[in-house]
C-alpha cells in the first residue's frame, strides 16, 4: 500500500491551519443569505470569493455557474491518470438568514473563536464543510508529492440550497456533461456526535401530495342533513386514519414494494450508537414515541418509509361552534421513501388507494409535487469503505453509521450524474443549523480536513470503476 | 262531544281574514332583525306592536319582557275553569336579515301578495306562524260562545331566536313561575309539504365540543422526526375516523344508552311520506347518502343520534408544501341526540372515550359548549292526538308525522317548564326560511288559523292532567 503517511498530513495541516481559518473567516463575513433578495449581491460575492480561493488552491478550472436564480460554483482538477475515478463533491455557499437580534450572542457575520468553537452563520452549514476540502486537498498533494489529486476532482457548490434549491435540478441537467462522475460526495451533513464519529449512508426520498375532498355544494346544516350524507371532513379523517394499519405500517397496497430492508449488520451497527431516547425526544420537542412496529426509533426515521399528515383543514375553524356539514376538506400528506421504492409507482399506488377509499358522494382531486428519490449506499460498497477508512484514520476511532431521515438535492445528483451518493461531514447536532449561535467545533473541522486528505488516495487505490462504467 | 262546529269556525275566519292579513302585513313591515344592532329599535317596536295586538285580541295580560338582550313578549289569558290545562305557546318575533340586494324579487320588508303567496321576511319564520294564533283564538271563542279560551293560554314570543337565543335560557329560568304550564306548543316549525300535512313530534338535542390536540412543542421536521413521534394531525384524523364503526354507528361506548328506539308504527308512518331521495339530495346540495346501517335517510336525520365533524384544522394549510409534523391539531365535533339520551352522560362518555383514544405523547383538551336536550312526544300522547285531530279537521286529510333533525330552544322550555313539547306549524320546505323570497302559502296559513281554533277545545275536553301534575 502506498498509504499517505498520516503524520505528514497532520504536520501539513498544523502548519497551514491558521491561514485556513483566517480564509474561512473571510468567507463567513460575506452574508450570502439566499432567501433575502437584498443579499443577492452577497451571494454572488460569495461565489466569486470561492472561485478565487479554489484557483489559489490549484484548481485549473474554477468558475461561477449562472442558474436561473443565484449563482453556483464549479471547479475541476483532473488527476491526469487514466484509471482514476471521477469524484463530484457537492456543498453550498449560501446560508440561512441570521441577525444578532434573533438572539445570537455574537454578530452572526462576524466570526468569533471561543475555545474550540468558531461561531458564525454558515460555520457548519455549509461553508466550513465545503472549505475543509481545500486544505484537505493541499494536504493530500503535499503528503503524496503529487501535483494533481489522485482522483479527477470536481466541486459543485450551490447558491440556493437554503431556499429549497428551486433552480438546482435545471442547472445540473443543463450541465450534466461537465458533472459526469463515478461517485458523488455530499459534504452537507453531520455525524452522530462529538465523541461518536459516523458516516451517513443514505437519505430518504419524498412524495408529497395535497388531497382536496368535496361533499355538499356548500356548507349545510348538520341538524337537517348530518348523519345522512357523507361529510368531507369525516372522509378526510378516515382517509388520513386509514393511512396506517394497527402496526403503524403504511396501509397503501404496494407502498412497500421493493423496499430495501435493513440488514442485520446495519441494525447491529445502529444499535451501537449511544442513543438516548429522552435526549432525542427533547430534540424532537416531543413527548412520546410512536411508529412502525418492530423497528427502533432510529430505524424508523432513517430506514423505514413513512406517511405524515403535514396539514389538514376543512369546515368551521373559528371561535365557538357552527353546526355544519362542511362543503370541503383538505389534506397535505408527505411520504418519506427509502431505497428500492420507485417514486412514480408509489405516487400511483397512493392515487389508486385514495380513489378506492372514498364514499359515494365525495369528489376528490389529488395533486403531487415533485418527488425526491431516496439514496442509499450499502455498507459493503468500496467507496463507502474508503470513506470509513479515511474517517477512521482522522478520528483514530471506530466509525459507525447513520442515515439521514430528510430528503435533499443530493438525490437529484444521483439521478443526473448516475453515480452513487456518499456523504462526508463532520458537523454535530449541537452546531445550531438554521438556529442561533451556529458554530463548528474546530477539532472536528480539522478531522474533516484530515479525512478529506486521506480519502482521494484511498479511493484511487481501492475503488474499482464498475465494469460498465464511463 | 261539545265539538265546535267547524262550519262556524270557517265562516268566522272568512269574515275576518282580510283584517288579519292586513295586521300581519303591518307587523311584517317592522324589520325586527335581531342580528343587526342597528335594528334593535325595530325589534323593540315589533314587541310593542305585538303586545298591543294581543291586548286587542283580548289577552288580559300582554307585556314586553326584558331580557339581557332584545325583548320578548309574554301574554296570558286564563280559562276561568278549574280543570283546564295550561298551555304555553312559543314563537319568535325577530327575523333573519334580508335585503333586496341579496336577490329578492320584492322588498323583503314590504309584504306583497302574489296569488296564494304572501312574500316577506318573517312571513313563515316566524311572524305568520305566531300570528295565526290570534285569529284562531278569536274563532275558537266565537264558535264556542266562550269569553275566555277553553285552556289557560300563555304565549312567549322570543326576540332573539334568529341570533341563537343567547339570553333565552336565563329569561325563562327567571320567569319560570309565570311560565308554568302543562303543555308547551312550539309554533316555529313546518310540515312535510303543501299536500302532505304533518305534525312534528320531536327535535333532536345536541352536544358540541372542541378537541385540541398537542404533540411536539412546535412544528418539527417530518424528515428528521416523522414516523417516530405521534403527529397530532394524524391523531385528530384517527379520533374523528374512530367516531363511527363500520356500520356508521357512533362508536363511543355508552353513546346509545337509553336511546328511545323508533316503534314499528313510527317507521310505518315515516315510510308513508312521499320521500324523493333525488329531490332531498338536491335540497341537501349533496351527491350521495351515507349513514347508520339499517335506517332510512329520514330515520337517520330525525330519529337517530349522529356525530359530525364540523371543522378540523392543524399544520400547514397554505400553498405548496411544508414537510412538518405539526405541533397541534383541532376538531370541532357536534353530536345530535335523541330522546332518552342524557346530555351529561353523553358528554362524559365522549370525554372518557377521547382520553382513551390518544397515543402517549399527545396532550389534549376537550371543551363542551352548552348542550341542548332532545324532545319527543310519543304518538299515543293525548295532547299529540288532540293536535292531530285539530290538524285533521283543518286539512280534512290524514295527518302524518315528521320530526325535526335540528335542535332548538324548545328543549330549554321542556326543561324549565317541565312539560312535554308539541309542535303546531304549517310552513313548508319551499317557504325559504333564512333565504331569499321568504313566503307563506295563504291557504296553509288559513289552515293554521283553523287548527288553532279547534285545538284548545279538543285539549280541554280530551287532555287529562297527569295525576302528579301541577
In short:
Chain A is built from 14 helices and 18 strands.
What features would you describe in this structure?
2 copies of one chain form a homodimer. Chain A is α+β, with helices and mostly antiparallel strands and 470 residues long. Chain A folds into 2 domains: 6-203 and 374-462, Zn peptidases (Aminopeptidase), CATH 3.40.630.10; 205-259 and 305-368, Alpha-Beta Plaits, CATH 3.30.70. Helix content of chain A is 35%, strand content 20%. The first copy, chain A, is built from 14 helices and 18 strands. The longest helix of chain A is centred in the N-terminal third of the chain and has 23 residues, at 6-28. The relative contact order of chain A is 0.19. The model of chain A has no long low-confidence stretch (mean pLDDT 95). Chains A and B meet through strand 9, strand 10, helix 6, helix 7 and helix 10 of A and strand 9, strand 10, helix 6, helix 7 and helix 10 of B. Strand 11 (306-315) of chain A pairs antiparallel with strand 11 (306-315) of chain B, so a sheet runs across the interface.
Amino acid at each position: 500500500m502506498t498509504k499517505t503517511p498520516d503524520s505528514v498530513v497532520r504536520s501539513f495541516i498544523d502548519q497551514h491551519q491558521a491561514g485556513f481559518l483566517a480564509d474561512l473567516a473571510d468567507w463567513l463575513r460575506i452574508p450570502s443569505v439566499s432567501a433575502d433578495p437584498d443579499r443577492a449581491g452577497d451571494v454572488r460575492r460569495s461565489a466569486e470569493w470561492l472561485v478565487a480561493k479554489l484557483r489559489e488552491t490549484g484548481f485549473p478550472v474554477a468558475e461561477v455557474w449562472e442558474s436561473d436564480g443565484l449563482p453556483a460554483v464549479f471547479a475541476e482538477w483532473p488527476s491526469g491518470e487514466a484509471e482514476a475515478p471521477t469524484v463530484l463533491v457537492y456543498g453550498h455557499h449560501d446560508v440561512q438568514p441570521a441577525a444578532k437580534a434573533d438572539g445570537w450572542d455574537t454578530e452572526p457575520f462576524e466570526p468569533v473563536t471561543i475555545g474550540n468553537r468558531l461561531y458564525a452563520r454558515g460555520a457548519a452549514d455549509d461553508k466550513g464543510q465545503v472549505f475543509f476540502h481545500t486544505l484537505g486537498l493541499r494536504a493530500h498533494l503535499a503528503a503524496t508529492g503529487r501535483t494533481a489529486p489522485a482522483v479527477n476532482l470536481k466541486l459543485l457548490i450551490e447558491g440556493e440550497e437554503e431556499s429549497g434549491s428551486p433552480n438546482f435540478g435545471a442547472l445540473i441537467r443543463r450541465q450534466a456533461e461537465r458533472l459526469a462522475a463515478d461517485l458523488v460526495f455530499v459534504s452537507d451533513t453531520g455525524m452522530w456526535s462529538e465523541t461518536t464519529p459516523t458516516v451517513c449512508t443514505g437519505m430518504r426520498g419524498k412524495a408529497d401530495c395535497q388531497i382536496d375532498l368535496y361533499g355538499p355544494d356548500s356548507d349545510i346544516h348538520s341538524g337537517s342533513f348530518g348523519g345522512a350524507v357523507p361529510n368531507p371532513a369525516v372522509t378526510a379523517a378516515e382517509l388520513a386514519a386509514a393511512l396506517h394499519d394497527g402496526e403503524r405500517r403504511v396501509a397503501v397496497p404496494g407502498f412497500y414494494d421493493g423496499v430495501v430492508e435493513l440488514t442485520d449488520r446495519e441494525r447491529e451497527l445502529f444499535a451501537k450508537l449511544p442513543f438516548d431516547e429522552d435526549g432525542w425526544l427533547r430534540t424532537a420537542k416531543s413527548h412520546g414515541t410512536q411508529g412502525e412496529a418492530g423497528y427502533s426509533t432510529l430505524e424508523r426515521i432513517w430506514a423505514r418509509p413513512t406517511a405524515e399528515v403535514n396539514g389538514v383543514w376543512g369546515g368551521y375553524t373559528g371561535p365557538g361552534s357552527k353546526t355544519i356539514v362542511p362543503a370541503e376538506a383538505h389534506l397535505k400528506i408527505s411520504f418519506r421513501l427509502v431505497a428500492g421504492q420507485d417514486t412514480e409507482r408509489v405516487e400511483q399506488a397512493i392515487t389508486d388507494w385514495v380513489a378506492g377509499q372514498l364514499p359515494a358522494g365525495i369528489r376528490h382531486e389529488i395533486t403531487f409535487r415533485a418527488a425526491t428519490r431516496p439514496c442509499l449506499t450499502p455498507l459493503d460498497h468500496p467507496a463507502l469503505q474508503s470513506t470509513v477508512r479515511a474517517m477512521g484514520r482522522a478520528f483514530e476511532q471506530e466509525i459507525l453509521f447513520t442515515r439521514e431521515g430528510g430528503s435533499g438535492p443530493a438525490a437529484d445528483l444521483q439521478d443526473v450524474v448516475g453515480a452513487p451518493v456518499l456523504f462526508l461531514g463532520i458537523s454535530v447536532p449541537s452546531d445550531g443549523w438554521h438556529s442561533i449561535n451556529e458554530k463548528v467545533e474546530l477539532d472536528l473541522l480539522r478531522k474533516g480536513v484530515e479525512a478529506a486528505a486521506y480519502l482521494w488516495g484511498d479511493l484511487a487505490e481501492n475503488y474499482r470503476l464498475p465494469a460498465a462504467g464511463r
